[in-house]
Amino acid sequence: MGAGGVHPELADREESWPVVRSEDRHRDGWVVALREDWLQRPGHPGDEPFGRLVLEHPGAVVVVAVDDRERVFCLWQYRHPARRRFVELPAGILDVDGEDPLTTARRELVEEAGLEATEWTPIGTSYSSPGISAERHHYFLARGISEVDRGGFVAEHEEADMETGWVPAADLIAAVVDGRITDGHSMIALLMAQARGLLRV
């Protein structure tokens, strides 16, 4: 809170502290890497630089695909780091150079679900964990759903073991609220869609 009890502007803002040096902790041929930056607090040149780990990630998309019965397409997928099978929405990494988020969302819906949509509505964006990464997720709602061929896409590893199905939107929102669904980005996408009046529940 600012002087006199006045709040700063209620919005995130761009800001960048000086980086004295950087060192890779892990980097290979994949799109994600881990480095350590040493920062200098602005206006305090006498302070000792301090280290912060940074997970480099290109970002991702999440799709709330809704059919004409107000059901949402869901995936049940195993996630090894959490040792859980999560109820999720179709999603994917922005791993194609120059591809915008909507194009990625369209591609991922085809690849993961075998679906395409005629109506696309941006829901919003969020930073996954800004204490360690600049990764952003872009959320979309898709309607006008039809089945399509996956275009030669072959699921591997955890994706090859996914279960899929259509779930009434009202049931999904209830499962988010009572804690049965805990994948953060699926929760954000569904609650944002509901808050914007894009889901009829």
Automatic annotation (TrEMBL):
- Nudix hydrolase domain residues: 55-189
One Pfam family cited in the UniProt record for this chain: NUDIX
Cite a single GO BP annotation.
ribose phosphate metabolic process
Q: Name one GO molecular function term.
A: ADP-ribose diphosphatase activity
InterPro entries, alphabetically? NUDIX_hydrolase-like_dom_sf, NUDIX_hydrolase_dom
What EC number(s) does this enzyme carry? 3.6.1.13
Q: GO terms for CC? A: cytosol
**Where does the source fall among the domains of life?**
Bacteria
Swiss-Prot/TrEMBL keywords: Hydrolase
**PANTHER family per the UniProt record, alphabetical:** ADP-RIBOSE PYROPHOSPHATASE, UDP/ADP-SUGAR PYROPHOSPHATASE
Identify this protein by name. Answer: ADP-ribose pyrophosphatase
Could you tell me which species this protein originates from? Nocardioides soli
